[in-house]
Amino acid sequence: MLKKFRNSLLLFIQIIILIYFLILVFLYFYQRNLMYHPDENNYFGDQLSINIKEVKVETNDKINLLGWYHEKDIKKYKTILFFHGNAGSLENRIHKLNHFRDMNVNFLIIAWRGFSGNKGKPSEEGLYEDGKSAINWLVNKGVKQENIILYGESLGTGVATHLAQNKKFAGIILETPFTSMVDAAKNFYPYIPVSLLLKDKFDNKNKIKNINIPVLVMHGEADQIVPFFMGKKIYEIAKEPKYSYFTKHDNHMMEYDENLVKAFNSFLKSLN
């Protein structure tokens, strides 16, 4: 009887181990489908109230990225380069872009490879290439690097932080930033060895130490996707001059209300 119980217990443990192993294999090969969501759409019909020009930004690996470009005066005003998050299309950011109409800024927002009909598949190195290509596109338009403000939204903070290292951009804005993708993944998969399995690590907490330009960190305490403590940690690590806009009520998609726009404008004025 005891032997039968031991054999059953051993079989049960072996099944559990096999299932766990299969889960690890699935997560390893399917992880980028879990990280990047180009087909997710939370667009609610917002209409652009700011004039934009649809442009194509070519990368070194010959992918043409869809971009929206608004030029007010590249000599007189700063230019925001907007890197969006891991889900949705450019239309999902219209409610944010419309606020730039009343600000003295130019902007370029690009869609990542694999997003908004672009060819290619997203990856950490691929997104870095996309970001660098967007910077080059602006420079070729006549925008000086020191007049570019990098704006990262969620996943986009990983690209903005990486590209801002040891560079002389005008500034960097990080909306709902994470400390690293490893940390963020551990928050969802605490029993998975994500540090060993994860391909795209986006190590913001170490790269932020190499940023020597003004930083604005925006995050809400109600964020259910990237915990607020991560954004606060990024702010603490960042060098001066640094600014924060922290709220009690904002979830992951921050509300572009009067208070946020005021903080945004204050940061812009500090760069002049």
> Which homologous superfamily in CATH is the superfamily?
Alpha/Beta hydrolase fold, catalytic domain
Write down the Rg: 21 Å
- Look at the helices and sheets and give the structural class: alpha/beta
Q: How many β-strand runs? A: 8
Summarize the structure in words.
The protein has one domain (36-270): Alpha/Beta hydrolase fold, catalytic domain (Rossmann fold). Helix content is 39%, strand content 18%. By secondary structure, the protein is of the alpha/beta class. It starts with a helix and ends with a helix. The protein is elongated, with a radius of gyration of 21 Å. α3 packs across α4 (155-164).
Quickly describe the structure:
This protein is 39% helix and 18% strand. With 272 residues, the chain is an alpha/beta fold. The longest helix is centred in the first third of the chain and has 34 residues, at 2-35.
Explain the layout of strands and helices.
Elements: H1 2-35, E1 53-58, E2 64-70, E3 78-83, H2 94-97, E4 105-110, H3 124-141, E5 148-153, H4 155-164, E6 171-175, H5 181-188, H6 194-197, H7 204-207, E7 215-220, H8 228-237, E8 242-247, H9 258-270
Parallel strand pairs: 3-4, 3-5, 5-6, 6-7, 7-8
Antiparallel strand pairs: 1-2, 2-4
Helix pairs in contact: 3-4
